[in-house]
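Deliverable D2.4 — example input (structure tokens):
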């Protein structure tokens, strides 16, 4: 059952997720520009920028956006990376599909890809990555 408070909570998390997204995008883009200035090339600069943004995004999302999770479960970093890969793959799929139809260099295509990426990454983060660890019996700590 949904209550008014759970909707407010979800809206707050969504706004925090968006704020973190803006911050990690700003950091990532800054890293890309700095790396390009130092002659790292497009591919290396892009990898460095996305890596920096992902690290910042993970830290802020795990501690602020989804702060109701007091303890990260085993495999959280792997689930985060997998969620990123799937969301980014969907983004890339939108761009490649547009290209296959002859639509190139269109900012609306990239905006659509970003929207799909953002929705998928948020859903994966809230339902798969940053979910509370199940309550366990301390004597049953054999599972990793």
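Example output (designed residues):
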């Amino acid at each position: 059952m949904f209550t008014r408070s759970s909707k407010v909570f979800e809206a707050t998390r969504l706004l925090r997720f968006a704020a973190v997204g803006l911050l990690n995008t700003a950091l990532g883009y800054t890293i890309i520009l700095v790396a390009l200035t130092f002659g790292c090339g497009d591919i290396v600069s892009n990898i460095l920028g996305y890596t920096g943004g992902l690290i910042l995004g993970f830290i802020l999302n795990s501690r602020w956006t989804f702060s109701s999770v007091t303890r990260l479960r085993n495999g959280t970093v792997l689930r985060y990376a997998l969620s990123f890969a799937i969301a980014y793959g969907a983004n890339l799929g939108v761009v490649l599909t547009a290209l296959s139809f002859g639509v190139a260099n269109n900012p609306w295509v990239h905006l659509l890809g970003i929207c799909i990426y953002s929705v998928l990454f948020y859903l994966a983060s809230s339902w798969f990555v940053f979910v509370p660890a199940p309550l366990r019996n301390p004597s049953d700590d054999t599972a990793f």
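Residues 4-37 form the longest helix (34 residues).
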